[in-house]
Structure formats: C-alpha cells, structure tokens
Amino acid sequence: MISMQKHRAFVALGSNLQNPELQVGNAINELNELPQTTLIKASSLYKTSPVGYDNQPDFINAVAEVETALNAPELLDALLALENSHGRERPFPNAPRVLDLDLLLFDDVSMQTSILTLPHPRMHLRGFVMQPLVEIAPDVIIPNIGKVSDIAVSYAGQSVEIVNPDKKKA
Q: 7,8-dihydro-6-hydroxymethylpterin-pyrophosphokinase domain spans which residues (predicted)?
C-alpha cells in the first residue's frame, strides 16, 4: 500500500462581487471537494476595505486550513480552477473579483517559481489575511517572518471587522 504524504496548507479567500459572503462560504465548502484535500477549519468571515484599487466594494475575506496529498503546485492549480469555476476574471491588478484564492503557506516550504511563491510574499503585510489567520492558527510560524499571533497584533487597527461573530466556522 502506498502512503501519500499529507501536507498542511493555508488558503486565503476573498470576494467583493456577486454576493461575497455566499461566494466565500461556498468556496470554503468547495475546498473540501478538491482532489485529495480535506478542509480542517475555516475562520469567520471578515469585511475589509479594498487594497491597491480603492474604487470598488468592500471585500469579504476568510482563511482556511486544509490537509492535502497534493503538492504545492498541484494545490495552486486546483485553487485556480476553483476560482475559474466561480467566474474569476483578471482585467487588471487588484480588480474587483467574484473569488480570489491565495495559497499562503504549505507546510514550512519556502519556494519561488514563476507561478508560485511560498510563503505568500505579502501575506504578513495584509490585515485581511492576518486577522483571519490568527483566529484559526495563532501559533503557526511564517518562515523567515515570525509567529502569526505576533504579526497580527500590528493589524488590529486596520479596517478588518468580523461578520456575524456568533456564526464562527471551526
């Protein structure tokens, strides 16, 4: 019997078009349907201000932890296919979007290719990533950056507010 190595990965989810709460909620559930992948837990939903291009609606964001037998590039391909199934378009950087999925962390892998950089190079600079991540994985270490709970403190004042705090997913 061949044993498949299981990997721990974290995925950021975001949407600001076509009922964002529904889009992110559905995508969280669909992570569990990816090949050889199981959803472990997901953060609450957070309402956040747009970054990079301000003339657009606020976002709904979350972070999910998954366990997968896929390698990092395979998981990225599966995430991109999931985005596309939701009608993701990329007219310009930071454009409004139906669904955005970013692979944040994959085990303790550090890598940089033409299509994938791990850990995500800007995750520690974004309150809309760090606040949901600290909710579900405060003790995770971002390689060469630090502990999630230490980093997230600096983003507590950003426009990141929990949506329906009584309906946490875990």
A: 10-138
